[in-house]
From TrEMBL:
Domain called Amidohydrolase-related: residue spans: 24-280
GO molecular function: hydrolase activity
Keyword terms of this UniProt record: Hydrolase
InterPro entries referenced in this protein's UniProt entry, alphabetically: Amidohydro-rel, Aro_Compnd_Degr_Hydrolases, Metal_Hydrolase
PANTHER family: BARREL METAL-DEPENDENT HYDROLASE, PUTATIVE (AFU_ORTHOLOGUE AFUA_1G16240)-RELATED
Protein name: Hydrolase
Residue intervals passing through the bilayer: none
Pfam entry (one): Amidohydro_2
Lineage, highest ranks first: Bacteria, Pseudomonadati, Pseudomonadota, Alphaproteobacteria, Hyphomicrobiales
Keyword Electron transport tagged: no
SUPFAM superfamilies documented for this protein: Metallo-dependent hydrolases
Amino acid sequence: MSDAPLCLPPKPLGALPRLPVGACDSHFHVFEAGAPLASPRSYTPQILTIADWQPYAEAAGIARGVLVQPSVYGLDNGVMLRAIARDPGRLRGVAVVAPDISAGALRELDAGGVRGIRINTRNKAGVALEAVAELLGKVGPLGWSVQFQVRAEQLADVAALEHGEVPLVLDHLAFIRFGEADTGERLDALRRLLDRPNICTKISAPYRLTARADYADVGAAITALTASHPHRLLWGSDWPHTELWDGMPDDGDLLSAYEHWLPDPQLRQQIFVDTPNSLFFSR
């Protein structure tokens, strides 16, 4: 356990601001008691299931959700698929797969509600960036997207990918660290990517990106991006906020911050409803 410490649990659920009607949580994780964990891994999760996410979704007015395969399960997508099967009309998934996965296995995942794959260079047991070239041609015909949990300095590597019409989605503002000397340079690199067709970013997990307790620097960047790239943004809760050992955020405070950063109802509709639904729920 010394190399995979146990995460904090989320804070008890209080009153939450309501999201726009039809809102989609485009990034959250669930875990299952007894499911084998990868070793080595970056953290040990609290056991929180789809039944634990549902009260949060109900309180916030979340109509749909996209489960993202966490690194602690490696290539075994079973926990995620079983969660989707609990409510297949409302849930979709982003899987982690090996580059040599067969077309038949991908079709099975598609039938189980998967609509994308995840590349993760930040966590142990993730799939590396080098796998993308082989996977793009396999997932493209399915209409899936490719999600990237990468470090901000890898934005140039993402920019160099020949992805055709396959949508690319960057998790958590590409993990740009705010308040550092290169923040402006990294934001410019992100904007250049968002200028391209079919590239989006999730405006999620501000607590991972700044030392500020109010996340105001991240919020200012999100507000600016809504002015320049409103159709390239989507929101996710990042629930249950894994890989935190102190400073667990309050879900009500987080949603209130997004109300402040995104006051325009039309922009909220685009970011919370339209863009994620287009990416994950077109069928």
